[in-house]
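Task: sequence design from structure.
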């Protein structure tokens, strides 16, 4: 009985072994593309790619991109559009294809013929002090007439006047605290950047009856306290100079404000401008800290809390409201004359593609915005300079037949980013991907905004 059991086990083992051998040699190894899909990273390719990257070319890219101011939809912006198209369509080291994608977007600009003004005026409306309308130029390129006046994009136009108060960072808690000490109705609030979004400083102020808002960058927050352009700030270092003003978009939401959740094409339905939410309901204007110093150090009233104090060599008071009777601005008001205007304009994304060899309908998106408030050497052109060099190296390898990615790579040079990530937001709102015949199965998105803020970009 035991002998029969042993023989049975041996026969079963032999049969199992024969089955494994037959299975090993008889089963297909799979489709021909399977090895490509499962292939590990080619370290030799990465080494070759890095060896091809030319830092001098990155430098020249940066020089070309920052030649002139290129605010969204301006002539300077169109010049950068043509640069991107020329490079990405180059026969020797361009991409497989490149094109421009137009959107009709709602933007906000100052009136070039009627600049915004902020003044201190006495009871007879005599001007006691005028805020700089443009920054002090240190080099010839800063004298370019296309350098836009500092302004708050999407601030409403308006003419308001009132006693000045200091509201720290313009947070809801700041206005609540300030309102316990000062009647804010009809006042002008001066705030510093930080703590709350740009537009939120005005949105938070309006419920308290504030008529207008000024915003500045305190040297304590960005300059390590340094204030003098004689030997401390730019042009002697990277610190913001006294007249320097941070421009920006003062809206809360991203993308075109008239076409939420829809791509801003010519035929797209647009909401009425009065239905836009998340933008300042009262005039707001950015100024330099040299002017903020003059205003804040003349304020009357109680001393602001310790946490509200900044770099100026004076006590930051809350305002009486208004100025000290012993100051040069006694019994004076701050007057804001804002002439911003909104307009729908064409803004272009420049798109490029390297088609994948194995899974062309799956792709990685690499993008960087192109527009800037002025010359944009760091934000965004440092990133775009790197992106152009990456596409040059990869494009040349593709053209020479040396390499092609497994998945497609789509490159995006976004327009109108400074106005609220408009170019990239509109791209994502396009429902159909028919422009490059791809179906979205998966997407990895890289935003190369500024080279110096990305640890892995050199």
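Answer:
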């Amino acid at each position: 009985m035991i002998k029969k059991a042993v023989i049975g086990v041996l026969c079963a083992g032999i049969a199992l072994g024969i089955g494994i051998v037959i299975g090993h040699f008889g089963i297909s190894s799979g489709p021909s593309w399977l090895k490509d899909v499962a292939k590990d990273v080619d370290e030799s390719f990465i080494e070759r790619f890095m060896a091809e990257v030319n830092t001098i070319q990155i430098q020249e890219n940066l020089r070309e991109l920052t030649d002139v101011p290129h605010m969204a939809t301006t002539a300077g912006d169109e010049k950068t559009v043509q640069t991107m198209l020329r490079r990405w369509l180059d026969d020797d080291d361009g991409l497989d294809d490149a094109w421009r994608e137009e959107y009709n977007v709602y933007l906000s600009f100052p009136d070039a013929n009627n600049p915004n003004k902020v003044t201190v005026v006495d009871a007879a409306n005599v001007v006691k002090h005028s805020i700089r309308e443009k920054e002090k130029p240190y080099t010839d390129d800063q004298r370019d007439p296309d350098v836009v006046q500092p302004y708050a994009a999407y601030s409403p136009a308006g003419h308001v006047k009132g006693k000045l108060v200091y509201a720290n960072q313009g947070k809801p808690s700041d206005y609540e605290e300030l309102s316990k000490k000062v009647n804010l109705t009809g006042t002008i609030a001066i705030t510093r950047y930080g703590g709350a979004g740009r537009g939120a400083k005005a949105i938070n102020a309006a419920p308290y009856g504030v008529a207008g808002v000024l915003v500045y960058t305190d040297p304590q927050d960005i300059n390590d306290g340094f204030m003098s352009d004689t030997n401390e700030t730019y042009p002697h270092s990277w610190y913001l100079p006294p007249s320097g003003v941070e421009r920006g978009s003062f809206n809360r939401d991203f993308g075109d404000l008239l076409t939420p959740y829809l791509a801003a094409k010519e035929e797209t339905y647009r909401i009425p401008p009065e239905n836009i939410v998340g933008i300042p309901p009262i005039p707001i204007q950015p100024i330099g800290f040299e002017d903020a110093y003059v205003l804040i150090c003349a304020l009357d009233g109680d001393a602001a809390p310790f946490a509200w104090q900044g770099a100026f060599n004076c006590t930051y008071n809350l305002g009486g409201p208004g100025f000290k009777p012993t100051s040069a601005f006694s019994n004076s008001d701050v007057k804001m004359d804002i002439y911003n205007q909104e307009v729908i304009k064409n803004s272009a994304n420049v798109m490029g593609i390297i088609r994948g060899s194995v899974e062309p309908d799956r792709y990685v998106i690499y993008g960087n915005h192109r527009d800037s408030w002025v010359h944009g050497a760091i934000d965004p052109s440092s990133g775009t300079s790197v992106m152009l060099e990456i596409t040059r190296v990869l494009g040349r390898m593709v053209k020479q037949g040396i390499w092609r990615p497994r998945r497609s790579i789509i490159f995006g040079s976004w327009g109108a980013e400074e106005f609220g990530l408009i170019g990239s937001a509109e791209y994502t709102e396009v429902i159909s991907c028919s422009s490059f015949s791809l179906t979205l199965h998966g997407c990895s998105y890289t935003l190369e905004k500024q080279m110096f803020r990305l640890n892995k970009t050199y």
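Residues 2-26 form the longest helix (25 residues).
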